[in-house]
Amino acid sequence: MTVAPEFTPEEDILTPTVRRFFRKTLFWIGITTILIIIAGIGLVFSGSLFASEDELGPDNAAPEGARALVEVLKHEGVDVVVATSLEDAQQAVDDPNGTTLVIHDVSRILTDEQWRDAVGLADNVVLIDPGFTALTAIAPSVYSAGYVDGDLDADCDVAAAEAAGTISGSGSGFQTDGDTVAACFDSGDDTYSLIQVDYKGALVTMLGATDALSNGRIVENGNAALALTLLGSEANLVWYVPGPHDYDDAPLTVADLAPKSVFPITLTLLLVFVAIAVWRGRRFGPLIIENLPVTVKASETMHGRARLYQHSTARLHALDSLRIGTIDRLARLIGLPRLATVDEVVSGVASLLGRDERDVRRLLLDAAPKSDRELIALSDELLILESAVTSRLRNI
């Protein structure tokens, strides 16, 4: 009667269980989770995930951005809305009398008609560094006067300018040859960094001192007082930065042409792909080592390799296999060490048989068969060479 061996699950089963798998990978799972959390926190605090890089961008935290000003305004109770198209700005302005509209056309996108439509949305409008098109459409009597730098005094009765007193006025300057509501921060030659005009009943402020609003310089002099008083006078603030949708002939993008169901379908297909990849690429664990109950004869292995060489027409590879065995046996016959080189074997065999070394080297190393007939002939020559060495040694 045969007694069955005792079954020990933990020792005999080599395929890993779920518990063992997680036990082995728990460290790396923890490290990966910690790295993902750190990266997420870094993105959140740096604001780099959705922040723009535009000059005076309301969500740009760089020194040239204006995010600090926007955050302070929100802290003071001002409802700030960022619009990137004229349509968004129109929807954001609910109460023209209780809203301050800031327009910063960085890329000079708006046309004359769009400028008139935008300025007409609110009663209090601030134009940051307006260009030629904006000045022509809104204030034809005001024109650009070049770059202004240095500290500037208010010298006017505008509430925001009086609250600031002195600002760091790096930016654009303006000159005027017509009626204006106010002109502040004179840098000489009747060049001003802030000019107010009346446009169809709306108070339009043209601010050229852009550095006064930037994150890097808002704390200098009276820059903060100017910005907070000028932009925080109303309960609502719409910060309008014209974008690609404001072009007259803006081409439709793929997102505009695609149906709304494209995103969920694409996401579903992506999840299906990941699931299939995990399913088909999963690892079953280490192979189970088991002794075979049969013994394969060396002759069968030899014949099997020979058939593979024949099917792939690898004549040189087959001949090299024969040469390796012949060289090893010849080295042992003539008393050379195991680490002897082929050249040493060639020299020893040629000296023993009295043959030309080039002939022996051709047979043991250089000759390349071009057909099965040549392969057989070279194989016979190897056998003859080995037999000659054996016979020579017996006769010594």
How is the secondary structure organized here?
Layout: H1 9-12, H2 18-46, H3 67-75, E1 79-83, H4 86-92, E2 99-103, H5 112-119, E3 124-128, H6 132-138, E4 142-148, E5 151-153, H7 159-164, E6 166-168, E7 171-176, E8 182-186, E9 192-199, E10 202-207, H8 223-231, E11 236-240, H9 254-257, H10 262-281, H11 298-311, H12 315-333, H13 342-353, H14 357-366, H15 372-395
Parallel strand pairs: 1-11, 2-3, 2-11, 3-10
Antiparallel strand pairs: 4-7, 5-6, 8-9, 9-10
Helix pairs in contact: 5-6, 12-15, 13-14
How would you sum up this structure, described in words?
The strands form three sheets. Strands 1-11-2-3-10-9-8 form a seven-stranded mixed sheet, sandwiched between helices. A two-stranded antiparallel sheet has the order 4-7. Strands 5-6 form a two-stranded antiparallel sheet. It is built from 15 helices and eleven strands. Helix 5 (about 110-120) packs across helix 6 and helix 12 (about 315-335) packs parallel to helix 15 (about 370-395). The protein folds into three domains: about 15-50; about 65-245, 3-Layer(aba) Sandwich (Rossmann fold), CATH 3.40.50; about 300-395, no CATH class. Residues about 1-15 have low confidence and may be disordered. It has about 400 residues and is an alpha/beta fold. Strand 2, helix 5 and strand 3 (about 125-130) form a beta-alpha-beta unit.
